[in-house]
Amino acid sequence: MPSIHLADYVSGATVGAIATTSYGELERYELAAFLTAWPELHREALALVPERIHHTAFVHPPAIVGEDVIIGPDVRVHEFSTVRKGSVLCAGASVGFNCEVTACVVGEGAVLGHRIGINRTIVGTEAHLSAGVTVAAINLCDDMRTPDREVIVRVPDGLYRCGTTQFGALIGDGVQTGNTISLGPGSAIGRRCRISSGVTMAGRAVAARSVVGAPHTADVHVRQRPARSPHG
Length: 232
Hints:
8% of the residues lie in helices and 26% in strands. The chain is mostly beta strands.
């Protein structure tokens, strides 16, 4: 049976009270098992952390943070961003202007640029997502309010069943992206990958240290404008 182990993609939290919760032990989970247990693991984490929003974190006044969100030391959430539905921002993470983070784990030192929307996604340590990255968590279906198609990931040895109808992406430690990128549902991006601007990708795994490009972005034609005469 195909498998996806979080240890092959991301590192758990090491700083602050979050490190004493299951978010400090991400490496021991298989992906589908984590997704199934995630709601209960988050409830347990909420009971363990002494302060839900660490006193060294900065949340810009116009930002919105849900009541069940955990924010670690030195995190920054910039103006007009929303973080909700059991999300966890680990130490040193940064959420840029006008982002929407829903039911996500954002690893230590990870950077979400401006106008990013991610859902049901795990972002690794020191990952850097540039402006305009979107991660979708559900497949198209008759009624998008009640998704009914299980998320599947194509891996080298077959099809991996996520066991849920809602999963966006597993984005490995140190991944870097360009802008205007669409991922998911069901993307698994290995450590230190680089994803070029304009990529659209869902339902597949990418090996560590890969470079993912969108060929059409290279099809740019440059020509010289004809010179105009001095008289017109």
